[in-house]
Amino acid sequence: MTAIYVDADACPVKAEVERVGTRHKVTIYVVSNGGLRPSQNPLVENVIVPEGPDVADMWIADRAKTGDVVITGDIPLAAKCVESGARVLKHNGEALTSANIGNVLATRDLMTDLRAADPFRQGGGKGFTKADRSRFLEALERELRAAAR
Length: 149
Fold this sequence. Notes:
six-stranded mixed sheet; 5 helices; Rossmann fold; single chain; alpha/beta
């Protein structure tokens, strides 16, 4: 049976995941270190993990399997979940698959090295837009339908 795992710290699409997941009647695990308002939805399980680096990521990676959908912006977590057969979506709707995760990981590592080499390098990622939210909703719907097959 399909489940959705949400790497919930700093996730801008929790409400959308809950709405789509509820429509598909799948269990949704919202995993964080705490500080999130719990949902009253019976399909949503709020999982609070201990403080520490990557504890939420490890919890998700240990459980996500073929047929599950993982929502995360964390590329190393995405790679582990793709390896275990789960379907992975970034917050902007981009699917991370076995075909593209290697390139995404390499780009992440390159950017980390560039930032470390130039401490004055400023800027973060692009802002989250309405178009990103819309792409995410379409992608989640598509992934849940594919997982149900």
